[in-house]
Amino acid sequence: MNWLISANSSMFDHVSVFEHFGFIDWKQGNGKYQINDIVYIYCTIPAKKIQYKCVVEKINLASSEIQHNETYWIDKSEYQKALEGKYMKLTLIEQIYSSKMSLENLILNGLKAAPQGSKKLYGNLLKYIESNFSDSNQNDVFPDMVNEDSNAYEGIKKSVVVNKYERSSIARSKCIEHHGTLCKVCNLDFSKMYGDLGKGFIHVHHIIPIHKIGKEYKVNYVEDLIPVCPNCHAMLHRKLNGNEISVQELKKLVQR
Fold it and tell me: Per the database record, which ranges form the HNH domain (predicted)?
């Protein structure tokens, strides 16, 4: 089943929660969610767009089983109220910022009004969202990025959780806009090798290993992210003598 829910950033900073953790514990309400359901999140004013695609990884969680994100509540008076009832764990699959997901375009394709609460998706609206909620620049995953504790991705792409900054279409777009699409390690240019088929294709790598990033860290799209080809990207996520190698170290290996 596919769902559409809404998020109000004036009450709860869901953007930072996804950025810092890659998942969010969400109030289930009256929705009859099942594990592996897909949930799209519509962000209210000022975005007024669907920006997140998640998978339901756990359901019927008590408040004692969830991550307590009191610091992310803008309206602190709502925090204790939010602890009542059951929760579900939503793990982020993809994040985009596209005009195709705007309220206006969603209404043109079958949505009746701005989302409030939860709504099941089906028919033309679901087809429109599924066909336009994608990132053509990076659909590949690597074995060493597998989250072995997660079963929720079976039947979707495998049990994979990619670095949340590398996964973000917004981050990739800003990185590529600045650095271009040439691999910064081996200089591979997909457009030269594959013509129009390879035009615009590249992966984006986060230079600082994610486990070294603090909770309050804010990504710098110019200094922290670089475009790399899939082969170099995979090598950057492998370990040599127990440590991930740096971009400069991989360059030396490529050039020797």
Answer: 183-238
Fill in the DSSP letter of residue 34: -
The pLDDT value recorded for residue 165 is 47
Domain 2-132 in CATH 3.10.590.10? The answer is yes
The predicted structure's pLDDT at residue 54? 93
Paired strand residues for 119:
4
The candidate with the shortest Cα–Cα distance to 244, out of 149, 157, 144, is 144
Element containing residue 51 per DSSP (H, E): strand 49-61
Instruction: Please list the ranges in the chain whose pLDDT falls under 70.
Output: 134-171, 209-219
Cβ atoms 53, 167 nearer than 8 A: no
- Where helices occur in the chain by DSSP H, the ranges are 14-21, 79-82, 103-108, 123-132, 164-167, 169-179, 190-194, 230-236, 247-255
What b/e readout covers 23-52, taking b as 16+ CB neighbours within 10 angstroms?
Answer: bbbbbbeebebeeebbbbbbbbeebebbbb
46: preceding bond cis by omega (within 30 degrees): yes
- Domain boundaries along the sequence of the chain: 2-132, 162-255
- 226 bridge partner residues: 205
Instruction: Judge residue 61's burial from the number of C-beta atoms within 10 Å of its C-beta, 0-12 exposed, 13-18 middle, 19 or more buried.
Output: middle
Please name which of 118, 161, 148, 159 lies closest in space to residue 21, comparing C-alpha atoms.
161
